[in-house]
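Q: Could you fold this chain for me?
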Amino acid sequence: MFTGIIEEVGRLERIQRGAKSARLAIAARRITEDLRLGDSVAVNGVCLTVTDFQKQGFWADVMHETLNRSSLGALQAGSLVNLERAMAANGRFGGHIVAGHVDGLGKIIGISKDDNAIWFTLQAEEKIMRYVVEKGSVAIDGISLTVAWVREGQFAVSVIPHTAKETTLGERKTGDMVNLETDIVGKYIEKLVGFPQDLSAKATSEEGGLLPAERESGITNELLSRCGFL
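A: Sure. Below is the predicted structure, expressed as structure tokens.
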């Protein structure tokens, strides 16, 4: 699990492309101080496993599904990438829950300045937009950000100069594609609310009752509304 607080901007030194996969060599310094083989590192918001490392960087494999769903396949040697190690159990939770499992791509369709803030307007598919909530959280290339407003097919975030400087956002331009991961909490709620209530008797215990996982959850739209979630 990650928090969306970027630790370091690394550089893609080399990419070995297979038929449907890739192997990335990423130069980094800060995160390699206590890196170990098999550790998880979020690269532009994509959770990758360290397969080899040195003090100056690490290697990670990228499978077909990841290339299809994220922007990693479009990277070239020299590309800058946001890096974050998996959250330590004794660390501060500075951002929000980020799994490193990208939902899809968003397109930057507008960048503007407002005093010390930089506004980014993004366009995304409905399958992603359904989970984007005003004042909620979203990870853009692995960066934990607050959603300022939401419109049909679009949303915006406002970024302080520090965030733009310490991440790849400061290098982004209109038309760039970015990785998006929406808040996982909303997905779980949707899954629970949509769980079938009219359960068949296929999975039963020896005593004839429904197995625990098949019993009615009790979570309804009415209940969530009363508790302020809807």
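A (continued): The chain has five helices and twelve strands.
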